[in-house]
# Entry
Amino acid sequence: MFCRELFDSGYYCAENVLLAIAESQGIQSDLIPKIATGFCSGISRTCGMCGALSGAIMSLNLLYGRSSPEENDIINLKLYFRQKPLSLKQDYV
# Structure
C-alpha cells in the first residue's frame, strides 16, 4: 500500500521503490528520492532500464553496498545473484 501512496503522490518508480525499501528498513534521508530521480522513466526519460528495477538495485546498494573500498561484501552479493536465477528456475519451471 505504501508504494501506491508514494506513486499517487507523484514519485516515479525508481524514487518510489527506493523510498519504500528505505522506509521499511528505518532509513530516512532527504537524499533518498534525489538519488533515484535520474533513474526515473527508463533512466532520465530515455526509455532505458525500468525505473523500478533501478530503484531495486539502488535499494540493494543502500542495504548491502560498500562504505569503503576495503569492503568486499559486494563479491558475496554478486555470487548470490548469480545463483538465484538457477534456484528460481528450479522452483518455478
